Uracil phosphoribosyltransferase (Demequina litoralis), 213 residues
Amino acid sequence: MHLHVADHPLIRHKVTVLRDKKTPSPTFRLLVDELVTLLAYEATRDVRVVECEVETPLTTTTGTKIADPAPIIVPILRAGLGMLDGMTRLLPSAEVGFLGLKRDEETLEAITYANRLPEDLTGRQVFLIDPMLATGGSLVMAIEYVLERGATDVTCVCLLAAPEGIAHVQEKVGDRADVSVVVAQVDEKLNEVGYIVPGLGDAGDRLYGIVDL
Ligand SMILES: O=P(O)(O)OC[C@H]1O[C@H](OP(=O)(O)OP(=O)(O)O)[C@H](O)[C@@H]1O
Ligand SMILES: O=c1cc[nH]c(=O)[nH]1
Ligand SMILES: [Mg+2]
């Protein structure tokens, strides 16, 4: 697994505002959208492309276009939905699949409650998007799910990660070169109830404001 921590002053600035407990949902949603656009720049560095011909007003030259089959973006519901628009803005030809995972807050185990993804992902490039990588249970479940269905090249885009979660993904995925995690910042630790510290709280609740679903 390859880890890329984005290090850019604009990203650090926007994450700082996200962390602020006084930041209201509308601003929070806007910032998540802006951040994913910045992270997607890095996350799509290895997006599959092919050469193509393009006619300019002056001549014909060789260009680049996204290869077929198009990549699939998979937001992990709910919080991952907040990152979807930003991602599809940069990759408009991508398809979108959905995976609904809910962490049981007692056991910290992820539970699947929704799945709208092709059964066969053979050879597909997948972008998993979820703002929070805490214990890593949810992301590992999602990565294993798409790999089992044949995906090759899985890029996970997260805003905040705990070192424990990164270690868990690393342990499960091993040294596979085709799985990578792009994250805005790696935080200090998980607390005793599995929240990222300093973190930003519950990303789903801060985006959508419904507590205790
Ligand atoms: O690394 P983990 O310990 O598995 O925790 C991270 C998961 O928790 C959050 O989702 P949550 O389960 O709160 O669902 P939600 O998006 O509906 O709020 C977050 O968006 C991740 O999916
Ligand atoms: O800190 C955390 C941990 C899990 N899920 C969140 O939304 N936040
Ligand atoms: Mg949540």
Summary: The helical segments are 9-19, 25-43, 84-90, 137-148, 163-173, 203-208. The CA atoms of residues 22 and 36 lie 21 Å apart.
